[in-house]
Amino acid sequence: MADVEGNVVLVTDATRGIGLAVAKELAGAGAIVLLNDPEPEEQAERALAEVRKLQPEARLVRGDVADPADIDRMFAEIRTNYGGLDGLVSNAGITADGYAVTMGEAKWRRVLDTNLTGAFLCCRAAARLMAGQRAGAIVVVSSTSATNSLPGRANYAASEAGLLAVVRVLAKELGGYGVRVNAVLPGLVETTMTDTAPDDRLADHLRQVPLARSGRPAEVASVVRFLLSERTASYVTGTSVVVDGGLTC
Question: What domain of life does the UniProt record list for this protein's source (predicted)?
Answer without folding.
Answer: Bacteria
